[in-house]
Every structure is written in C-alpha cells, then in structure tokens.
Specification:
The structure is a homodimer of 458-residue chains.
Chain A: H1 2-11, E1 20-24, H2 29-45, E2 48-55, H3 60-77, E3 80-85, H4 88-95, H5 99-117, E4 122-124, H6 129-142, H7 146-150, E5 155-156, E6 159-160, H8 168-177, H9 192-209, H10 214-243, E7 244-247, E8 250-253, H11 262-277, H12 285-296, E9 302-305, E10 309-314, E11 317-322, E12 324-326, E13 329-330, E14 333-335, E15 341-345, E16 348-355, E17 368-372, E18 380-383, E19 390-391, E20 400-401, H13 402-408, H14 413-416, E21 421-424, E22 427-431, E23 435-436, E24 449-456
Parallel strand pairs in A: 1-2, 1-4, 2-3, 4-6, 12-15
Antiparallel strand pairs in A: 5-6, 7-8, 8-11, 9-10, 10-11, 13-14, 14-18, 15-16, 16-24, 17-24, 18-21, 19-20, 21-22, 22-23
Helix pairs in contact in A: 2-8, 4-5, 6-9, 6-10, 10-11
Family (chains A, B): Belongs to the tRNA(Ile)-lysidine synthase family.
GO cellular component, one term (chains A, B): cytoplasm
Binding site for ATP (chains A, B): 26-31
Chain lengths: 458, 458
C-alpha cells in the first residue's frame, strides 16, 4: 500500500522537502493510518508533522474520548497535538446549513487558521477512494451536475489527500498490521443512514452483480469529469471578468453574457452568486434556470434566490444583490444590521459581515474596513458629524476633536458634512474614507471580525 | 401524458407541419405507444406517418411474430409498413462488435435508407426516460466519461424521441387505457441480464431507499452533462480543424495540439480516430492516454490501437493511419485488400472500404471513387498501362482503346506511364485521375459500395 500512496503523492506533487504538514486526525481508521504512514515516512521526506483534531461536540462523551485517544497517540510518538471544540449542531442551526456543511467548514477553518499560526505548508486529510466513490454515488442519486461528480480532489490549494486512491479495506488491513486500534469507524455528519446504506448495501450489491471494481471505476469517472469541468471553469472565470462588474454592492451580469453558450453562462451565474455571498449554499440548477428566464423577461422584474439574494432584470442586464433594507433615520442616525445591505440613501449602501478568517485582510481599501466585533456591545450606527465630536484616531491614545482632524487633513468645510461616520455604541469607529478609530481596531487577540463595506455612488 | 409529450415535442422543435415521419416500431409497449400517439396527433400536426420494423433474427419465431403483429396493426389503421430482416448475430461476429452495437447500426441504417427512399423528414424512436436512466446507470457502473453520461439525446439530426421524458409506467398505463396489447416487453440486445437487474432490482432499491424520483434525477444529470459536453465538443471540432490534416491516408495531429487543455486534447484525439475509422468502437480512455504518452516520448515510436490503427510519433507530431501493408508486385500488378491501407510504393497508398450507405457520395472527387462491389467476382488489382489495354469509359457502351482515350484527352506520353489503373477481375475499372469505367459504376440497384481512395504524394 505504501507504494501506491507514494505514487499518488508523487503524481500530484503533494509534499516538498522541509514542509511542515498538519495531519487532520479524527481517530478513525483512515486518519490514524494516514498519521502512522506520514510519521513513518517523515525522515525520508524530510518533513515535520503536527496533528490537528477537531471535537465537533456531536457525540457527547464519545467525542471527548476520541480527543483523548488521539492526544495520547501523539504524546507516545512525541507529535505536536492541537485541538479545538466547536458546537457544530449550534452552528448548523444558526446558519441554516446542514451539520455536514457546518462540520466541514469548522474543520477547514480550524486547519487553515492553525496553518497560519504555526506556519505550516500543507494540510493532509485522510479521504480514501471509498469516500470519494460513496460521495459521488450519493450525489448522483440525489441529483447533481459536473461539479458534484468530481467528489473529492486529490489536491486543493494546500490540502493534500495521500489516501485518495486507496480502498478502505487496504486501510483497515494496514491498521491491523501495524497494530493501530482506531477509535471509531467514522464521524458522519451527513445522514449517517444514507451513507451507511450506500457503503454496506448498495456498493456491495453493485460489486457482486455488476462490477467488482466499482470503487475505482467511479474514481476514474471522477478524474475525467474533473478535467472537463476545470477547463469549463477556467473559461467561465475569464468570461466572468469580461461580462461582470460591481456597482453599489450589486454584481451586474451584462446582457451580452446571456449570448454565451449555456455551459459557460450557467457557470458565470454561479460565480457571481458565489462572489456575492461567499458560498453557493442551497443554490440549485433550477435557480440558475430562473435567472436565465428572468433575463429573457421584462425589465424591472425581480426574483429572490435562497440566502436572501435579490436578482433583478435591468434592461436585460442582471443585477444581483443581497436583500436591501431601507434604514429609517432615528435621532439623526441610522442603525445598521449585520448580514444585509443597509440602504441609507439613494447613493449609500452599507454591508456588514462577520468573518471568521482573519487572513489576507486588505487593510488599505478606502471603503472596506475591519473591526473587532467582540468589543462592540450594542449598536452599530451611521450618521454625519455633530458638534463636539471626539475620536481616538488609529495609532493614537487620547481623544482628539474631529474638527481638528479635519483641519489637520485639510478637508474643506463643504465636504465635512457629507462624510459618513460609523459609530459603535455611540463612539466613533470610522470616519469613512478618512480614518478608523483606535478603540475597535483588529488586533492579535481578535476572534470575530466585523467587515464594513460602504458603497457610494458619486 | 399527451401534454407532457407535446411539451417535449415543442421544446425540442421535433416536428414541422407537413413532415413525413418514420416511426420505428418493434412491437413492444414503448413503440406501440409512440405509434398510437403520433397516429392520434397526425391531423393536429398535419403530418404523415409510416412504420419501419426491423427483424433482428435474434429471437427466432418470436421475432417473426413481432413482425406480423406490427404489420397487422398497421394494416388495420391503414399505415404504410416497411420491414427488413437482418441477421444481427452474424454481423456482430463478422465485425467483432457487440450484438447491441450491430443491432443499433442495422436499425439506424435501415431507417436512414428508408428515409431517403420515401423522402421522409423525421425518424421517431420510442426511447423513454427509464431507458435513458438505465443506460446511464449501466455506463456509470461499467466505467464511462461525459459522453456516456448523456445517454440518449431527445433529438439527433433527423431522429426524434418524443417519449424521452416519459416514465415507463406511464407508457404502460397508456397502452392499457388505449387497449393496445404490445407483443414483448423489450428487445434487449445487450446483456439482458444486466439491464434487467438494473431495471428490476437496482432502480427499485434506489427508489425505495434514496430517491423515489431517481429516473428523473438521472435524466436531469444527463441534460446538464449534455450542455457541457456539447460545448466542449464544439470547441474541440474547431481545434481539430486547426491542428489536424490528412496526408497519404494518415491523419496528422500537430504537436501544438498537445499544448491544449487536456479536456480538449482528448477530444481532438477521439475526433481523429473517429475520422480515420468512421467510428470509435472499442476506443477507451486508456488508449487516449497512450497517445498522449507516445507524443511525449521519442520520435519514431509506434503503438497499435484497437481496429488496427497505427499511431506513430514523428518529431512530436502524431501520425495515425490504418495498418499499412506493403503489397508485393506479382506479374506487374499489385493485389489490393479491403479494409487496410495498401502501400504500393513510397508515394502511393490505396485504401478500400465497403460502405453500406449510398447517400451523400461525392462523385466529383478526383482520387476517391465508388464502385458496385457485387459485380466484382475475384480480384481487385492496381497496375500501370499495358499494350492493348481496352476499356469501356463511364457513360459509353463499347470498348475503347486506352491509348485512344489518352490521345483524346491530350495526356502527354511521359505522363501515361505514371497513371495507376485499378482493375476488377482483370477489367479496367478506373484510370485513376482520368475516368472510371462503365461496367462497375454505382447504380440504383447497387447494394454494397466499394470505396477506393488513392493517396499520392507528388
């Protein structure tokens, strides 16, 4: 089996000398096998290994015992061990996504964040050929497109899957040969019932009656589809750049895009929806069809897609935006809401999002700024300047009169009244386009980041 | 059900007013339902209907009774009826292809030929949503790529499939409501065992345990894949034209093609193989991979693909040709073989093929001519002119001296010795590049056509 794993690792160029590799370990046979294997190849590859374990809080005491098991295994071999607890059930309910999706998101966030913190290069995960085939079969049965037929990729960004071509039975025999006694069969977030039925009934039935090599057959299909799909995606990304642009928090797909081949057009729409929301949760083929139909119809018509996305036909161009809410002015200020498009006036939209991942923040954008969400107790508001405004500018300690700041920066008086000001609990957090405040800035200890994006049409 | 069928027919623009439609009828429930349906819609659509029935000689007396059943049904409704008998088993053995493929080919040839003869516009076939889903599921289990996931198309050229979105159970209930008593369940050429297992065990199991709408789910997947695949094929056809050309019966893929994305490159290679042999029987993904590997290797290296196709790396360009056989000269002439590339000298190749379908023959090509194969008793040879050669030129009745023909046509003497002459049983059939003979020309009654293609490098 080691030879096959090495072949896969070579084929996809998974590891470079000197890499620090985070191994995601649940305690089940797959990840224990992967850990043992990478540990024994550590010297040959000249890599270092750390283990990351996420406790999903899904299986009560069992989950805690998994954690202890992996921790002890690491202690015995003197492997660095990191763990984290996340209440996946709670997140799933809060976000209205499946437990499976919430669990995956939590794991990948944890791994990515750890990667940054400990300056690792790779994240090794233990998906095997059966996982991939099962996933694909389930998706075929549920309904899917090309994307779904790809299943699990051998490599994506810094994530590597050395066992992706290995059958489960080989993994199990590796474990027993090496005297590894894995904790659990598998942590199944999605309908355990369905996957187990696929694994224990459907696949054995197909193996017996049609093709004893069904796992590898499905994996080959997946490889072919991946080649075709990634080419289509590549072209669609180019076409997205050609036809789409952003204006006042809308993503606009020009009507010319709708003359493209349907294979490309569908992908352009998906890319646009993805950019708008950061993900494609709950977006189905029928929604894409709806957008295409909308474009053929009358100007002014609207539809609402899942996740509160509003799509409008504007003279044949398609405008996509998150649900906009016109905010009422109370005592000369507007109270802002997170997760929607706050419409302040005809030409000012404010979008607030909470983001988990603090990497790659671009702090130099003029109209997008980041704040430490946990320091905000109650209200987030927007208003214009008032007499006596005080403010601790970024990098300073004490209060400064806002008026003095304007004078220092030589901002002409007629402009001062038109500069929006974001306040947190009544304190100035951002003089938009001018300076953020020091009190709410993102720092090392920040856990939840609030992104505020202001779109103004001049 | 009629509404659904009408919707499908409209969506794909299947029928125009005044069309003459050939309905392929086996006698089973699907085709009887289709026939009955089209017959009852005949007036509304303003179309005329004829029935074509192919007896595959696969089920002995039963097959003959099917024929009688369909014939009587047509007589009762006063529908024109055409039938043909083909020994599919024999063809399958002769050509080394499956019974399924041979049967399909025989049916489609029969329908196409009939279409020409009676000047029909459309051929209506009775594939239903279950057929399509079963085909796709079987291909997934056997191993396939995008092409295989498409299954059966609603429309291809003049072939239309009005029942393609209708479930089998609706067809059966249509038959019983309309008092139609179909002959057989289905003529299954491919492993009846496998398809029946899919139909009677696998699909019901999936319906019960995973998705009761699996038939339509698979059909939707197929629709999506078709859009993506036809776009990829369209691009690949353009790239084929850009990178490939023909020389001495070789199809040459320029090395630049191998820099294209793999999704496109694989299709270019398939198109080339298809053009060379007229079909892609037995070509698998691994063969395409082999061609790509060959191109990366040393010049001069060769591989043989199924159907006697020889692939050679020529300084990074890929040369594809049918197996070439160097023909030995006996008594100043060369005996030619059908189905291979006859190499006469360094710069003359002769390719002989038997073709079934006499439509669209281009009779004006200088170096490709067609002959009535059944008039040839023994040998097909090639030689140069000899003293006393006599010949009945095309369109004439009596013999003419070849020498006189050359003089009439003012062909200079020094050229006359270099003009190849094709003989059938010793009689001149073609003075290559000059004139064909009258005795072996293709006429109305010709059944088997011999195509001779001469490639000369000047």
């Amino acid at each position: 089996m080691i030879e096959e794993v090495l072949e896969t690792m070579n084929k996809y160029d998974m590891i470079k000398k000197g890499d620090k590799v985070i191994v995601g370990v649940s305690g089940g046979p797959d990840s224990m096998c992967l850990l043992h294997l990478l540990y024994s190849l550590k010297k040959d590859f000249n890599i270092s290994i750390v283990v990351a374990h996420l406790n999903h809080c899904l299986r009560g005491k069992d989950a805690d015992e998994d954690e202890i098991y992996v921790r002890r295994f690491c202690e015995n071999l003197n492997i660095e061990f990191y763990n984290k607890k996340v209440d996946v059930n709670k997140i799933s309910q809060e976000k209205g996504i499946s437990c499976e999706t919430a669990g995956r998101e939590a794991r990948y966030n944890f791994f990515e964040k750890l990667k940054q913190e400990i300056k690792a290069q790779k994240i090794a995960l233990a998906h095997n050929a059966n996982d991939r085939a099962e996933t694909i079969i389930m998706r075929i049965m549920r309904g899917t497109g090309l994307e779904g037929l790809i299943g699990i990729k051998p490599v994506r960004d810094s994530i590597i899957r050395p066992l992706i071509n290995i059958d489960r039975k080989h993994i199990e025999s590796y474990c027993s040969k090496n005297n590894i006694k894995p904790r659990i069969d598998k942590t199944n977030f999605e309908s355990i019932y369905a996957r187990n039925k696929v694994r224990l009934e459907l696949i054995p039935y197909i193996e017996e009656n049609f093709n004893k090599d069904i796992i590898q057959t499905i994996n080959r299909l997946s490889d072919i589809v991946e080649i075709d799909n990634s080419y289509l995606n590549e072209i669609s990304q180019k076409m997205y750049k050609k036809y789409c642009y952003i204006k006042l928090n809308n993503i606009i797909i020009s009507k010319e895009a709708f003359l493209e081949n349907r294979a490309i057009l569908s992908r352009i729409i998906r890319i646009a929806l993805g950019k708008l929301k950061g993900n494609l949760y709950n977006v189905q083929k029928s929604h894409i069809d709806d957008v295409v139909e909308l474009q053929k119809g009358d100007t002014g018509k609207k539809i609402i897609l899942p996740n509160e996305v509003v799509i409008q036909n504007n003279y044949g161009n398609i405008y996509m935006c998150e649900k906009k809410i016109k905010i009422e002015k109370i005592n000369n200020e507007f109270k802002l809401n997170i997760g929607i498009n706050n419409v302040i006036s005809m030409n000012i939209n404010v979008k607030l999002n909470l983001i988990n991942n603090g990497e790659n923040l671009d702090l130099n954008k003029k109209y997008v700024k980041y704040f430490d969400y946990d320091k905000i107790k109650e209200d987030i508001t927007i208003r214009y300047r008032q007499n006596g405004d005080l403010f601790v500018p970024f990098g300073m300690k004490g209060n400064k009169k806002l008026k003095d700041l304007f004078i220092d920066l030589k901002i002409p008086r007629y402009k001062r009244d038109k500069i929006p000001i974001i306040c947190f609990d009544g304190n100035i957090g951002w003089v938009v386009g001018v300076r953020i405040g020091d009190l709410y800035k993102v720092c090392k200890d920040t856990k939840k980041i609030l992104e505020i994006k202001i779109e103004r049409e001049e």
